[in-house]
């Protein structure tokens, strides 16, 4: 959530930010928020003045009683004040609620370095690493490879669960978990604490980490309960510190979350319907950092470097993309996407997003820090980045396929495979 002071003191910058994001439909909300804020402050001033008047008159009545003076006139002055205070308080609460509603609907301020652009077609490739592998045969896509190996069954999954699900079988299961364990060990060596979070969140926690207006349709809701399946472990990892004051001496706090993730994929109908690239259920290892504001941009670079190093060690070719204003997510001030080359599709596809969310989530969740007892508090900055995901398995299978249909396993993963060095037909 934006700081109300920004809307109050520099509304033009908020309007410019909306225009850079291509969110022109929200420009009028800035003036709406400014009016609600002004009205609320005016009403609170009136309420404070009335309470002061009430207290003054009450003290006068007490003094007049002691002196034996008539008090009827003063009593009449006091009589209407409580109802007026109640009325003004109700109006103030309504304006405050409207202010919060508008602020919750305005996206984060983009960093100055975010490129201009209307959508993903205008995001900027920063670098490409690993080239594109050459094959002496026509490369297949991951679903044909895994089907040929007897390691995936989409038809039976569709029978029992519907579209965008799959049964993963045999050594492909072991390989997926090897990728996850490798990432957890990689991040542990770099000071990240592994966390397996709850797989459900209540609405209050979710409102703190996403814009439910946009992201809500992606979330699976539990019927009859204030619970939702998580779409990424970023959400429970960030919200776990809601309403807390963290010890400044312990910042930055680095977590790596491991969990299944569940997404409705609303709006993706007809897109990536083949295979296990865009599915309702997948595994992911996520990086999350809580830090001081002056550290967040350096730590954003750290998150990006971590995911790059993982793909470099796995020898999966990729490119790094700086998202433009129109392609940057609601919560993020700046995002880099890592896209892996998929030979079966003949193009780069997104594997990871690394974002600096600044104080946008922490203001919603009231996550603060201070350096010593009784010292002033300040909002932390939060950052997040994918490390690996089920899509990493997709990229690995397509890039390490062999002409005989088998798939070589990259050296860093073999220690987790119990001696298996390739996926072979079973």
List the helices and strands and how they pair.
Elements (H helix, E strand, L loop, with lengths): L3 H6 L1 H11 L5 H41 L4 H8 L1 H25 L18 E6 L12 H7 L3 E2 H8 L5 E2 L2 H18 L4 E3 L4 E2 L1 H7 L2 H4 L12 E2 L4 H6 L5 E3 L5 E10 L18 E11 L4 H18 L4 E5 L11 E9 L4 E10 L3 H6 L2 E3 L7 E2 L1 E9 H10 L7 E2 L2 H4 L7 E2 L3
Parallel strand pairs: 4-8, 7-13
Antiparallel strand pairs: 1-10, 2-3, 5-6, 8-9, 9-15, 10-11, 11-12, 12-15, 13-14, 16-17
Name the poorly predicted regions.
none
Helical content band: 40-55%
Q: Provide the CATH superfamily of the largest domain.
A: Bira Bifunctional Protein, Domain 2
Q: Helix- and strand-based class?
A: alpha+beta
N-to-C CA distance: 52 Å
CATH topology of the largest domain: BirA Bifunctional Protein, domain 2
What would the principal axes of the Cα set say about the shape?
elongated
Which radius of gyration do the C-alpha atoms yield? Answer: 28 Å
The total strand number stands at: 17
Count of individual helical segments: 15
Mean pLDDT: 94
Largest sheet: 8 strands, mixed
At CATH's second level, what is the architecture of the largest domain?
A: 2-Layer Sandwich
Strand order within the widest beta sheet: 1-10-11-12-15-9-8-4
What is the CATH top level name of the largest domain? Answer: Alpha Beta
Total separate domains: 2
């Amino acid at each position: 959530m934006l700081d109300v002071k920004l809307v109050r003191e520099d509304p033009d910058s908020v309007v410019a930010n909306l225009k850079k994001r291509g969110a022109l439909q929200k420009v009028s909300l800035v003036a709406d928020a400014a009016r609600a804020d002004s009205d609320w402050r005016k009403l609170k001033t009136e309420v404070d003045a009335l309470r002061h008047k009430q207290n003054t008159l009450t003290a006068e009545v007490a003094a007049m009683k002691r002196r034996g003076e008539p008090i009827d006139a003063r009593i009449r002055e006091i009589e209407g004040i409580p109802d007026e205070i109640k009325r003004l308080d109700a109006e103030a609460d309504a304006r405050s609620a409207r202010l919060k509603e508008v602020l919750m609907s305005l996206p984060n301020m983009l960093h100055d370095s975010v490129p201009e652009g209307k959508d993903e077609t205008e995001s900027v490739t920063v670098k490409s690493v690993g080239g594109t592998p050459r094959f002496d045969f026509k490369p297949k896509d991951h679903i044909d490879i895994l089907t040929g190996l007897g390691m995936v069954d989409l038809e039976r999954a569709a029978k029992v669960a519907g579209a965008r699900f799959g049964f993963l079988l045999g050594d492909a299961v072991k390989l997926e978990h090897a990728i996850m364990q490798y990432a957890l060990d990689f991040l542990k060596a770099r000071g990240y604490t592994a966390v397996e979070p709850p797989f459900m969140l209540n609405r209050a926690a979710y409102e703190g980490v996403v814009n439910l207006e946009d992201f809500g349709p992606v979330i699976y809701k539990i019927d009859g309960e204030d619970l939702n399946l998580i779409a990424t472990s970023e959400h429970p990892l960030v919200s776990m510190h809601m309403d807390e004051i963290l010890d400044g001496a312990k910042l930055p706090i680095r977590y790596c979350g491991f969990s299944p993730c569940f997404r409705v994929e609303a709006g993706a109908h007809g897109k990536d319907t083949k295979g296990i690239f865009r599915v309702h259920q997948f595994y992911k290892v996520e990086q999350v950092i809580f830090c001081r504001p002056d550290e967040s941009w350096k730590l954003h670079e750290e998150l990006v470097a971590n995911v790059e190093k993982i793909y470099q060690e796995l020898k999966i070719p990729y490119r790094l993309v700086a998202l433009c204003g129109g392609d940057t997510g609601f919560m993020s001030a700046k995002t880099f996407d890592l896209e892996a080359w998929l030979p079966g599709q003949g193009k780069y596809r997104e594997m990871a997003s690394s974002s600096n969310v600044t104080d946008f989530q922490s203001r919603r969740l009231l996550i603060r820090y201070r350096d010593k007892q009784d010292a002033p508090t300040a909002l932390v900055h939060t950052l997040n980045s994918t490390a690996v995901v089920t899509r990493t398995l997709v990229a690995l299978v397509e890039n390490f396929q062999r002409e005989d249909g088998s798939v070589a396993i990259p050296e860093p993963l073999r220690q987790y495979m119990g001696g298996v060095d390739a996926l072979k037909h079973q």
